[in-house]
Write a structure and sequence with these properties.
Elements (H helix, E strand, L loop, with lengths): L17 E6 L3 H17 L7 E6 L5 H11 L4 E9 L5 H20 L3 E8 L2 H7 E3 L2 E2 H18 L1
Length: about 160
């Protein structure tokens, strides 16, 4: 059997520039996502001087700021972090859906990878679980997916 050429991303963050775009709304959750992401990227060789944190009000603002960052040409990847927690009104559905669609659109239109670390949970307890307790840290998972995607795209 012939060898099959496989392209895979390497988990090596050396010489890469990342923007970490994070919401202030639900910051008690988002701060844990940021910490997890920075720890992960640092352990994989990221230079702290090449990491930039941008804080914005909430999830609805993620796409427009992400677009501006992608257009700047300054970053190899953008990590979008936030937490939208369901309440008693349909507000959750609109914010979560539009933020998700907008971030995907930015990545597709710009070609700059966007790591999706926007928690969309039914309760504060679920958000806490996903920010570093029972369900792991989704900031770490989003950083890992972003790093791998950046490295795959560099090979294509």
């Amino acid at each position: 059997m012939r060898d099959i050429h496989t392209i895979e991303g390497q988990y090596d963050a050396r010489n890469l520039r990342f923007a970490i775009l994070a919401t202030r709304f639900n910051d008690f959750i988002v701060d844990r996502l940021i910490s997890g992401a920075i720890d992960y990227l640092s352990r994989h060789g990221a230079d702290p001087d090449k990491l930039t944190i941008i804080r914005i009000p909430g999830a609805f603002e993620l796409p427009v700021v992400c677009k501006k960052l992608a257009e700047s040409g300054q970053y190899d990847g953008i990590l979008a972090l936030g937490a939208v927690i369901r309440g008693a009104t349909p507000h959750f559905d609109f914010v979560a859906g539009e933020a998700t669609k907008g971030l995907a659109q930015v990545a597709l239109q710009s070609g700059v990878p966007v790591g999706f670390g926007l928690l969309t949970t039914d309760s504060i307890e679920q958000a806490i679980e996903r920010a570093g307790t029972k369900a792991g840290n989704k900031g770490v998972e989003a950083a890992s997916a972003l790093l791998e995607t950046v490295r795959v795209l560099q090979q294509l």
